[in-house]
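Standup, Tuesday
Yesterday: got the pipeline producing structure tokens again.
Today: sanity-check two examples.
Blockers: none.

Example 1:
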Amino acid sequence: MISTTQLDALLAGGGDVVDQDGKKIGGIGQVYLDDQGGQPAWVTVKTGLFGTGESFAPLADATVHGDDVHVPVTKAMVKDAPHSDDSDGHLSPDQEADLFRYYHLDGGGVEAPLFDQDADTNAVDLDAGTSGTSADSVTGTETVAGAGHDTSGPDTDDAMTRSEERLHVGTETTEAGRARLRKYVVSEQVTRTVPVSHDEVRVTREPITDENVGDALSGGELTEEEHEVTLTADHVVTDKETVPVERVRLGTETVTERQQVTEDVAHEEIELDGDDATTDGTAPRR
């Protein structure tokens, strides 16, 4: 909790508001007191171009380091916080409730600003604003006996609403991949066996007989001559032709399967708290 001495230092030093990550948010504007306990509740931060805008940051669990005040929230959260028109020097119940809901804090009345660093004087009465009105008068509601009221913020009605998350599962079609046909040429060796033939020379010697003596003497008695024959042989020749052998087509088919989906769903629970509290006999819902 910020002490009176620390508030004096903040007032005199003209420091900055720093977020939980050590980032400067902006200059200190005004400090607002809780009108019930007189404790510092909010600090306004000068943001925007030339510090013309002011955002509210909570002082709950805030700490002071030198001239700066460190708040337990992020810079982005402070800059996006609801901006309140506090020209009358006081937050309205609705404005305060919006801030409590935004920062997820317990509610409480906030009185006029403790100090304004744009003022002409640095002197301040640290007790000012501690005599604020009660919580019921600040919120503008009237407590009805036996009806109950909200202790965490402004009164709504005499009951709580319990909510829970419901899981809805569906499907959407997305691109999972692509398939394509690609044709390329592969060479392989093919072996075939074919018959081939060739001529070979054979010399046949015949003895002279009465039947061939005439042919033997037709050439003269002693002569020189040559006799030849032509030899032939088969040589293997090849030829290739391209013929179609099959048709290949690319298509798709849908295959359906079951897939389990697991998600966390949250729900609210309401329990009874009190030493002398009684119920109507209905078991609490879990």
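Example 2:
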Amino acid sequence: MQVLSLFSGAGGMDIGLSRAGFEHVGLVELGDAQRASIRQNTDWPLLSEGDVNVLAETLKPGDLGLERGDLALLAGGPPCQPFSMAAQWAAGGRRGMLDHRARTVVSTLTLVRRFLPRAVLFENVRGFVQGPRSALQFLQEEFDSISAAEGVQYRLSVAILNAADYGVPQNRRRAIVVALREGDDFAWPDPSHRVDPISAWDALHDVHVSEIPVARGKWVDLLPSIPEGQNYLWLTDRGGGPELFGYRTKYWNFLLKLAHDQPSWTLPASPGPSTGPFHWDNRPLAVEEQLRLQSFPDGWEVSGSHREQTLQIGNATPALLAEVLGNSLRHALGGPEPTKPTLLRARAAMSRIARPSQQSVPSQFAKLVGSKPAHAGEGKGPAARVRDVTEVSLVS
């Protein structure tokens, strides 16, 4: 059960696949901080060339001690920028496979054609397989072309999975694409925790934090006035606090806070000073807390500055989700029935929770209280108008 890992990042997917019984024959990662993270935690074979676009022109099965068709699994998450939610809202950003950054998807399929792995696993944002600029049609056409040219029968299975449904203490919906070479449909793992998810408190109640980060920025003093599990909408005419903002005039994770008894909201890779989720203690999440919410094992270290660490963790595949998928893939490839994942965290006693008291809005924001216009509606905001004008000019 050998795996070649592409876009390995801080190792989230690779931890899970390793726990599921896969053995790495190579990891491909371009970022210096990410490569350092892999080196300081494992002895996995990190390839010297980290650029998938370069490797697509040079790497052969024999370079890894394999024959063509021997590789059990090729896995990775190509960079998501062309398919991300931000790209859908950015002026001129809705280009999908036409975006130059999507070249990594083409290069990945080149490696599939050269190695002919028994299975392929992709993890990405939902826009990778949904919407008018998704990569799904390209993927289907490429796998059909490979199948016809090589006398195999790759069959694609696609799903949008919420990591929280499998025991990850984080609501994180991602596109998962599996291709099996023998033409079988992939049997998706049953959602074990959809009804009773693992909460943020379960994950964080006993975490050791080496350095507690300090909240900074213009708006962070408002955090104590927002209840846990809420965001800035609490401070609109449809919330329970004074009206400081117009309804739906800010991005969703603006001043967003964790709730003890619920999974975390999705961790971002590049949060601004007012971007949540924030801890219920009204501060940013420490690195160790971010790792817990991404279901990394305790003791895993991430290299670089705090910003670089947050970027790596936010971009990672939750390790537990990768283990669950790895167990199902191993079974699909002739291995044993899936077993209980090793990265699943035990529940904590809710009786130990000490909830911080909610405070009033600080006096420096009193002058902002008053009636505010709500968002005009879908497709009617200023960003949407700019985007539409830009796209018209691009087409012209």
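Quick observation on example 2: Strands lie at 2-6, 23-28, 73-76, 119-124, 155-162, 173-180. Residues 2-196+319-332 form a domain with the Rossmann fold fold (CATH 3.40.50.150).
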